[in-house]
Amino acid sequence: MKRLILLVVLVGVAGIAGIVRSHSRNADFKTYPVGPAGQSASDLREEIRRTVELSPGASVEVSGINGAVRIETSTSQTAEVYIERTGSSREALDRRKVTVETSSDGLKIRGEKGDVGFFSKLFGSNPTERVSLKLPRQISLVTQGVNGSVVVGEIDGPVEVHGINGKVEVGQAVGSARFKGINGNIAVSLKDITNNGVTINGVNGNIELRLSAGLSAQLEAHGMNGRVVSDLPDAVIEKEHHGSFTAHVGTGGAEINASGINGNIRLTRAGLAQNSRDDSGHGQ
Q1: Is 257 helix (H, G, I), strand (E, B) or coil?
Q2: What is the pLDDT of residue 249?
Q3: Mean pLDDT, rounded, of the chain
Q4: Which residue segment(s) compose the domain that 126 sits in?
Q5: CA distance linking residue 90 with residue 36, whole number of Å
Q6: Is residue 24 part of a domain?
Q7: Which whole-number Å values give the CA distances from 102 to 24, 53, 59, 282, in the listed order?
Q8: Are 122 and 158 in a shared domain?
């Protein structure tokens, strides 16, 4: 009998602790039951919101996200963070956590494993995440470890994208760009290329490089299971041997290096690419 009473007391304490924990979360976190749209009433949706002022040239890092990442940019210095997490239960949401660290010169958003029990780790379901950011244009951006598409607006700075299971679109990168381990198509507009150049490694998909008007470049591509094509009148493409190409655009100079590509590389002008999407009715 004493054991039974002790068990009832422990269950009651655990329930009270759960209630306290749910109400003591950061004000940036809010949890809602998910209604229709094909999801059961037991599903939960958690929102994370944050606003911070970033100084010009601030670094932004997004990593370990189990879902899509979408980034809009503007001339404002205000960064707005919105993260939506959806899981079948509170336990599912707790299997992963997303942290947001902010300062005037940086913003870091990280997804990682949560602190759950042994059996939950083995048999539980993971939540999905959707990250939507509104950022200043004058930043440097690093995005890595994303299980979903990554769509980025115009950045007045360098861009690095690694380990993405989905398509990658970058409205503009300035100075340098790095792409590695991408399982999906890539489309990136390059306004300027500095001595650091552009490197693309390990891509399972087609690549579209949109060069700004007047930008010259020298492309070296090796280990390709595809071709290098261009619609630029000032581009000369040569096939050195199987799987290797060189392309000379304009006066050359700015280096673009690609290797391990399972797909084609297309060279075009940023304006031409945008016009072709608008004419075909597949624009924004």
Answers
A1: strand
A2: 95
A3: 83
A4: 29-53+75-134
A5: 18
A6: no
A7: 21, 9, 10, 36
A8: no
- pLDDT at residue 164, as a whole number: 98
* CB contact set of 249 (below 8 Å; sequence gap of 6+): 211, 215, 216, 217, 218, 219, 230, 232, 234, 235, 267
In this prediction, residue 86 has a pLDDT band, given cuts at 50, 70 and 90, of: very high
Q: What is the phi-psi region of residue 38: left when phi exceeds 0, alpha when psi lies from -120 to 50, beta otherwise? A: left
Split into its structural domains, the chain has a count of 2
Q: Residue 5: which residues within 8 A CB-CB, separation 6 or more?
A: none
In sequence order, which ranges of 79-146 are alpha helices (DSSP H)? 90-94, 118-123
Give domain status of residue 200, yes or no.
yes
Whether residues 218 and 275 share a domain: the answer is yes
Please report, rounded to a whole number, the percentage of residues in the chain having pLDDT higher than 70.
76
Q: Is the pLDDT of residue 41 over 80?
A: no
Instruction: From 263, 215, 261, select the one nearest 235 (Cα to Cα).
Output: 215
* Six-digit token string for 276: 């072709």
- Judge whether 21 lies within some domain: no
